Amino acid sequence: xxxxxxxxxxxxxxxxxxxxxxxxxxxxxxxxxxxxxxxxxxxxxxxxxxxxxxxxxxxxxxxxxxxxxxxxxxxxxxxxxxxxxxxxxxxxxxxxxxxxxxxxxxxxxxxxxxxxxxxxxxxxxxxxxxxxxxxxxxxxxxxxxxxxxxxxxxxxxxxxxxxxxxxxxxxxxxxxx
Length: 177
Description:
There is one protein chain. By secondary structure, the protein is mainly α. It has helices at about 25-40, 60-80, 105-130, 135-165, 170-175. Helix 2 (about 60-80) packs antiparallel against helix 3 and helix 3 (about 105-130) runs antiparallel to helix 4.
């Protein structure tokens, strides 16, 4: 390693470098000097870059995108769970999925859970377009109550049929994360 002094002051301030080991008197003097210098100098804070304006989708468009995404994910999960080996010569099935294994009431239950928000967004947009603004609040409450009753009736009907067709242990498997 080459010799020589490493911390050469290039700013030319004319002040001697601070000692590494100092006494309490030196610390107090340096703090007093910093306080005096801090009053006369102004510190400029950094400026952040402005964020670009992002386009916002309407709530209806968001619900359509989310419904299509979750419906596609559900379909792919069913495809993974109920796939068949139709390409093998010994296989007597002609379809890529074993459709007879899929419970239609479970599909209805999942579809009700996934579609409830999209249905509410569609109906509320229709209410806002076709009715005067003075009765929007009352109609929104009525639409919520109507859709709640329809969704609950559909879920109870699907749950009843699922419980009739499957043992309770298989139903508990649906609750497993």
